[in-house]
Amino acid sequence: MSEHGYQSGRLNLPFVGISTFGKRPYVDNWESIDADVAILGAPFDAGTQWRSGARFGPRGVREASTLFSFGHAGAYDHEDDATYLPGDVRIVDIGDADIVHTDTMKSHANIETGVRAILAAGALPVVIGGDHSINIPCINAFDDQGPFHIVQIDAHLDFVDERHGVRYGHGNPMRRAAEKPYVTGLTQIGIRNVSSTAKEGYDDARAMGSDILSVRQARAIGMRDLVARIPTGARVYVTIDIDAFCPSIAPGTGTPSHGGFLYYEVLELLQTLIQNHEVIGLDLVEVAPDYDPTGSTSILAAQLLLNTLGFIFHHKAQAKV
């Protein structure tokens, strides 16, 4: 062994180089995606009703994700005695959907095109927003993927039908999703305090198949029993709004709501979900880095995504044994 140890090649520390997600390979040709997971940025925030800034979410989360780029052969978790995301899990970053400023429909169409390209390649789509309206084109892209259930982790119900003619803002995505014939129901977790959705929206959500749980209700039930409420055998799309977390640990968002989840609560929820259901897609939205000078919100988002992907592919590998 040389004086420099057994490793060779460039050290490539996290603060060096180009900030793709997890410093994984960049694929700019959407017709040649060959991977298990493809990361797509959706830097659109024209759907916000208060503080904008989530257009910088994909860039912030990517940069934060480089913190976790040491383990090219995977990351060993001593609690689970498992190595997550080993080298045979192929993750690529396909960059961002093209956003046309002030034009929601064109921007959403471009996001949908990206998700469809990922699905056509047989990869798992992971979309980083952007405001929560970007979930609308994501769900649109799944119109030929068969029935599935949506699990939303969020402070807000996002079930507004129409307000002043707006149907595709960040208060509308779960309503638009519930209207889809291939969405069989929603489990909406973390909903609390003053919401952007009026009582009529809650009534409509329940009538359209939603199971709505606050943070306090989720804690009282427990994460494992909460997951048991999701229909057995349902394939699941997961949408995570970073404001589901308490702003004491995730202040970098446009609409913070106190009383949110802590990190391990959501991690346990996702791990239990993945052990019991097939996850077919994932988005994480509403990270607005400029409201958090510490960078903690972006780091939390990146860490959550990487751990979630680790759970998904570890469970798939275990199922094959």
What does this structure look like?
With 321 residues, the chain is of the alpha/beta class. It has one domain (21-320): 3-Layer(aba) Sandwich (Arginase, Chain A), CATH 3.40.800. 31% of the residues lie in helices and 17% in strands. The protein is built from 9 helices and 10 strands. It has helices at residues 57-65, 104-120, 135-140, 173-178, 199-207, 215-221, 223-227, 263-276, 296-320; strands spanning 37-42, 75-77, 82-84, 91-96, 124-129, 148-153, 183-189, 210-213, 236-241, 279-285. The protein has an 8-stranded parallel β-sheet, with helices on both faces. Helix 1 crosses helix 9 (296-320) and helix 8 (263-276) packs parallel to helix 9 (296-320). The chain is globular, with a radius of gyration of 19 Å.
Structural topology:
Layout: E1 37-42, H1 57-65, E2 75-77, E3 82-84, E4 91-96, H2 104-120, E5 124-129, H3 135-140, E6 148-153, H4 173-178, E7 183-189, H5 199-207, E8 210-213, H6 215-221, H7 223-227, E9 236-241, H8 263-276, E10 279-285, H9 296-320
Parallel strand pairs: 1-4, 1-5, 5-10, 6-7, 6-9, 7-8, 9-10
Antiparallel strand pairs: 2-3
Unreliable segments (pLDDT under 50, ≥5 consecutive)?
1-6
Number of helices: 9
Reported for the largest beta sheet, the result is: 8 strands, parallel
CATH class descriptor: Alpha Beta
Strand coverage percent: 15-25%
The total beta strand count reads 10
For the largest beta sheet, what order do the strands appear in spatially? 4-1-5-10-9-6-7-8
Structural class: alpha/beta
Q: Say which CATH homologous superfamily is assigned.
A: Ureohydrolase domain
Distance between the first and last residues' Cα? 36 Å
C-alpha Rg (nearest Å) = 19 Å
Shape: globular
* pLDDT averaged over residues: 95
H/E element order? EHEEEHEHEHEHEHHEHEH
Write the CATH architecture name.
3-Layer(aba) Sandwich
Q: How helical, in percent, are the residues?
A: 25-40%
- Number of domain units: 1
CATH topology: Arginase, Chain A
